[in-house]
Write a structure and sequence with these properties.
By secondary structure, the protein is mainly alpha-helical. The chain has 5 helices and no strands. The radius of gyration is 36 Å and the shape is elongated.
Length: 150
């Protein structure tokens, strides 16, 4: 994987992003009141909802602006649970996934084909035969049609 990335990295580093991605497009047209767009004050109620005891509901994000969703009340526990969850999930994916891919069986039997070719080369060298012959099949075993059947 790293060797593949090192081979294509020079190509990827030459790719330039579009110049439009670095610039901001701001509309200069004045807003019309008839556009039908909702204003922020229209979307949110003026007074927060209250329960039967007169208490208002506060979102966990208002209590802890760095809320990650791993613990509802303690920011310290929330942050450490998030760090542990991401560390172990990514580690498991990389370590166990890499081990799984490494120990997959030989796809297409490439390793076996190379070992068999090396074995045949050694055998032919020991017998004094050429490594490859001009005929793929033994010509004495091929049955050809007679010339009378044309």
């Amino acid at each position: 994987m790293a060797s593949r990335l090192s081979r294509i990295w020079p190509t990827l580093s030459r790719v330039r992003l579009s110049s439009a991605l670095g610039s901001r497009c701001v509309s200069q047209t004045p807003k019309s009141s008839a556009s039908g767009a909702a204003v922020a004050s229209d979307l949110q109620p003026l007074s927060p909802a209250q329960d039967s005891h007169g208490h208002t509901e506060v979102s966990p994000f208002d209590k802890n602006p760095d809320f990650h969703g791993f613990h509802h009340s303690d920011p310290f526990v929330d942050e450490w649970n998030m760090r542990l969850a991401f560390f172990f999930s990514i580690s498991v994916v990389i370590v166990i996934g890499g081990t799984f891919v490494h120990y997959l069986p030989d796809h297409g039997m490439r390793g076996w084909a190379r070992r068999e070719a090396e074995r045949l080369i050694k055998q032919r060298e020991a017998e004094g035969l050429p490594l490859m012959t001009e005929n793929y099949y033994d010509p004495s075993t091929i049955v050809l049609p007679s010339s009378e059947e044309d």
